Amino acid sequence: MDVKEAVASRYSCRAFLPTPVPETVIRDIVERAARAPSAGNMQPWRVYAIAGKRVEELKARLAPRMATELPKGEGVDYTIYPQPMGEPYRTRSFDVGERLYRSIDVPREDKPARYRQYARNYEFFGAPVALFFAREKAHGPAQWADIGGYLQTVALLARGRGLHTCPQQAWVSFHRTVRDFLELPEHLMVYSGMAVGYEDPDAPINGWRSPREPLDAFATFSGFEK
Ligand SMILES: Cc1cc2nc3c(=O)[nH]c(=O)nc-3n(C[C@H](O)[C@H](O)[C@H](O)COP(=O)(O)O)c2cc1C
Prior knowledge:
Blueprint (H helix, E strand, L loop, with lengths): L2 H7 L13 H10 L13 E6 H11 L3 H4 L19 H15 L7 H9 L9 E8 L4 H20 L3 E5 L6 H8 L5 E10 L17 H4 L8
Helix pairs in contact: 1-7, 2-7
The structure holds flavin mononucleotide.
């Protein structure tokens, strides 16, 4: 797949088919993604990949807790959204939420239905494979950014294999459970999860795309020859 096509066709997929993905494919993606750049070539990413029974086990640990513990969960161990978010970021974030819930006919006021959809995060949206990206607690913003680049490289390589992904910081809200489940060493913490698998093309939740600002809203150019 052409790189432009991989970038253009990546989106956060929120309904997967149960079709399993071979371990060799996931290993290949995780290995190749390490060509991502990192400051000083530190390669600060740590990856935990789970599939099959392991995925089901983690889902089963959380399923009975969904009705009572959402949206707070175990509380986050790092702040995902700045408070306040400020403009124009708040509007963009609000807009994408609206589009998501509209695609499945859930009105804004219907909190229980919203939570039910949100809880699908903790089923990996039906994906057969999940990745967790962990980081050294002692590392700083530059290493977080490097892991972001690694995560996107995984998402693009997955496209090259006909797979889709959804990055999932939702897992940070259950960081204690995830730590325990992955037997994460004390010096690491989870930055994000990611669902990986084959998209369900018929699922309405996969039938919309998040918008982007026009080029001139976020980039300036100078010095180029006309
Ligand atoms: C690090 C990271 C974590 C995310 N966590 C979640 C999540 O927990 N659940 C979810 O449904 N989407 C999650 N998203 C997806 C974003 O909402 C999505 O990337 C954004 O709305 C743009 O849409 P697109 O990915 O479809 O282009 C996450 C994205 C990133 C980069």
